[in-house]
Every structure is written in structure tokens, then in C-alpha cells.
Amino acid sequence: MGRHFGDLAKIRHIVTYSLSPFEQRAFTNFFSKGIPNVWRRFSGSFFKVAPPLVLTYLIYTWGNSVHEQSMRKNPADYANDE
């Protein structure tokens, strides 16, 4: 009844290879190459990403504090109300 998922298209002149999932090694060189690679990528991009995020956070908190201060009532304006 129809074609299977792997046989949806006929492609000529292209050789494809596949490996059984039981023969694959998912965590090959995980500790010897994987962790140093993660550290290299993290340290390479940290100084590109962190300064804008810190600056954005500081501007956001400053804006919120200024807004909160502007929304307060001045007690001196109401000192003689009686």
C-alpha cells in the first residue's frame, strides 16, 4: 500500500550509506573532545553575548526605579491638608 518513508523518491547517481542504530556510538569521545569543545564555544561567545545582556538589564532596572520614584507622591505637598 504505497511507498515506505525511506523510499519516497528515486534519486539516480547518488549513493547513500546508512548505519544501523545498534552500531552507532552516541557518546564516543564525549569526555575527551565534547567537554573541551563546549568550553571553547562558551568562552568564545560569552564576551559577545554577556555585555549587551548586562547593559540591557541595568537599563531596565534603572528605568523601573525611575518610574517607581516618579509615581510616588511628595509628602511635602500634603503637609498642610487639614
TrEMBL record:
Component of the ubiquinol-cytochrome c oxidoreductase (cytochrome b-c1 complex, complex III, CIII), a multisubunit enzyme composed of 11 subunits. The complex is composed of 3 respiratory subunits cytochrome b, cytochrome c1 and Rieske protein UQCRFS1, 2 core protein subunits UQCRC1/QCR1 and UQCRC2/QCR2, and 6 low-molecular weight protein subunits UQCRH/QCR6, UQCRB/QCR7, UQCRQ/QCR8, UQCR10/QCR9, UQCR11/QCR10 and subunit 9, the cleavage product of Rieske protein UQCRFS1. GO terms for cellular component: mitochondrial inner membrane; respiratory chain complex III. This is Cytochrome b-c1 complex subunit 8. Belongs to the UQCRQ/QCR8 family. Component of the ubiquinol-cytochrome c oxidoreductase, a multisubunit transmembrane complex that is part of the mitochondrial electron transport chain which drives oxidative phosphorylation. The complex plays an important role in the uptake of multiple carbon sources present in different host niches. One of its GO terms (biological process) is mitochondrial electron transport, ubiquinol to cytochrome c. The keyword Transport applies. It is a single-pass membrane protein. It is found in: Mitochondrion inner membrane. Its main location: mitochondrion. The keyword Ribonucleoprotein does not apply. Keywords: Electron transport, Membrane, Mitochondrion, Mitochondrion inner membrane, Respiratory chain, Transmembrane, Transmembrane helix, Transport.
